[in-house]
């Protein structure tokens, strides 16, 4: 099952830590090297047995690797790419960021045709973050979208796929731009909506209003607990797609408002039942109960 | 613990069925009479031991009652009020609808100063409905907002409160208009948003897009599975408050769009972290983990 001699992971949080846990347990690599800016995180990862060795200085450890997974927020992936270019330019590496267009553009700028980067996005997030949220089997049965560069060799793509396959994921190859359009709809726009709604709630609520929320509210707004710094980078990186959806969403709101203003109960029932069917279809595709 | 001789329940679905289950188990009434338009529901309720007797004809059974809980959708509460006025006009009764202003206005029209109605709204819903979703202890620890009429006697209010207390609920007395403003924010507007978003999703998604949704999406849109007929009545009944929130929500969206257009990362982080705090405060008030 050993696929790599020395597998590096940058960023040992929910995603990086969960990858490390599986890599160690399944013996996917002979040796696992952890990178982070925070020594405390690295020490904790070592204590938990998630990594064999660690570096706060990326350039010091990157030369020894034969595979690397960058699990940092989207905004700093570029910085690591520049260091890879300088210190181990043929290294095969992937990332786990939720936005892919910008990352693929940066990779092309930095590496030209010579890069050995194949992007990945495992759809296995949580509103939690940090190494304490890391868990085994986080990626089991989950979709991973793979976004190769135009110049990625099929061998490199196959290696990245086999890495995720070893974690139990289902892989699909996709164009980075298409990935970003889809994720805007399935993840980034819902986050924006929930944030905007919580912002409204903050304005409109009284001291005790939170008492009168039910389980529906709790679930609907759960993603509003997501890390603000991480999500500001995601929303900014995919903002062009968000602008398109924002404009179309305003039309959807206008349509509902029109139906309510016209007191058109029949039409409203048809609309709501249609929404229910859309939700049912999504849950079926997802395998949710 | 017996508070009533013959307690009637109209509508034996999630709410009515769960009330019946607790009333029988806790011996809150000597006899429980079920009313529904559907004979099959009543038979099932009887078979499950939730009720002692049943009627599809409300007027035939209402005369024998000393307390009644109307658990129908908001749109038909008025119809039962007219029958109570005609057949047992001094009967103490309550309801469980999610909108209260319209119901209190109807009660005043129908009964004038003589009605013995005290509205209730237990905040204990679910996207599920029907008798098969009924469960014991659904109301335990849940908030119930009580909206008396201006002419309700303190004895009647106390009886309704003691009914909910026996089910383990926490009660708060509130003006019907205030109730509706609060519920617009905590429940009705989030439903409208999720419906509008699912409507957008239906327009924008491809055949397979549902595969690329994560657990955040699943939870955020869970309330989109709610019954369309029931929710069309709720949204219509509270539409004036929804219009106010819609207008202010558009401003919130505009603000986020402006920040994204200006690529103001610092401001965005502050906004998102503020939303996260709002969510945290709500969860604290609610006693959620």
Helices and strands of chain A, in order, run as EHEHEHEHEHEEHEHHHHH
Taking the alpha carbons of the first and last residues of chain A, their distance comes to 33 Å
Q: Biggest interface, which chains? A: A-B, 93 and 93 residues
The radius of gyration of chain A is 21 Å
- Structural class, judged by helices and strands of chain A? alpha/beta
Beta-strand segment tally of chain A:
8
Instruction: Tell me, briefly, the overall form of chain A.
Output: elongated
The main pleated sheet of chain A reads as: 5 strands, parallel
**Poorly predicted residue ranges of chain A:** none
Mean pLDDT of chain A: 95
- Helical run tally of chain A: 11
Model description:
Two copies of one chain form a homodimer. Chain A is α/β, with parallel strands linked by helices. Chain A is 52% helix and 13% strand. The first copy, chain A, is built from eleven helices and eight strands. Chain A has helices at residues 14-26, 39-47, 58-61, 77-87, 101-111, 154-166, 176-204, 215-220, 228-237, 239-261, 265-286; strands spanning 4-10, 29-35, 53-55, 67-70, 93-95, 118-122, 143-148, 170-173. In chain A, the strands form two sheets. In chain A, strands 3-2-1-4-5 form a five-stranded parallel β-sheet. In chain A, α4 packs parallel to α5 and α7 crosses α10. The longest helix of chain A is centred in the middle third of the chain and has 29 residues, at 176-204. The relative contact order of chain A is 0.10. The mean pLDDT of chain A is 95. The interface between A and B is large, with 93 and 93 residues.
